[in-house]
Design goal:
alpha+beta; Muramoyl-pentapeptide Carboxypeptidase, domain 2; two-stranded antiparallel sheet; 8 strands
Amino acid sequence: MQNSKPSEKVIRMSSSSLPDDIPMAQRQVQANPIRPSSNRRLIYGGLAAIALVALAAGGVVSWQVRQLSQADDSAIAAADPVPNSDEVVRAAPKGETLLNHYAYAEAPTSELEVVESGIKLRQSAARAYRDMVAAARQSGVELVLISGFRSLSDQEYLYFNIKAERNQNAQERAKVSAPPGYSEHHTGYAIDVGDAHMPAANLREDFEKTPAFRWLKANAARYSFELSFPRNNTQGVSYEPWHWRYVGDIDSLKTFYKARGK
């Protein structure tokens, strides 16, 4: 009858020898009285097998968790890449308009370059503008760049401060200058151009009477520039014969025509 119950010493030794990753509930089962010694060996053997299975399963689960975590991290990085500080643009909702002007994002500074007199354009627009100036010069026309890229803060001054100086209401000012966030100049694709030989006509409707305008009307499309605000334009913006925009690559084309739902 001595073997009908394990001694306290046997219980303590068998409990301390169990693997640490066996759940506490299974450890407590081993502390209960065990009758035949042969059953004790079977149970210990079964528990050892369970421990091995648990260790193997735990390893597989841990590997799967690591793989899923890595996949999630890759998917998140692909879906939401962290932009460089100079690549951040201030976007506006597509198709949104304010006072008849469409919303545009500010061009990334890394895509801008100085063309002349500190005026910047997107690189593709800058190349096309230089080619256009060279071609016009061969025809005796001297184009001059008056304005190119404008930041939101630049446009804020041009809209609000000049509006106040001229005692204009919001609608009146919007006919000649877009509110900040709604100017084509934010894109880096728009230019205000003048005639170097007739500066008095620059930024005035009289610009249409200059050799520069006549040359642009006949040749600007060769260099992918188009007049933004012709007479009686659907936006209701005042006629601006000096204001042209570049649409010579897919990004510039989408910038202006997707904003209009075209």
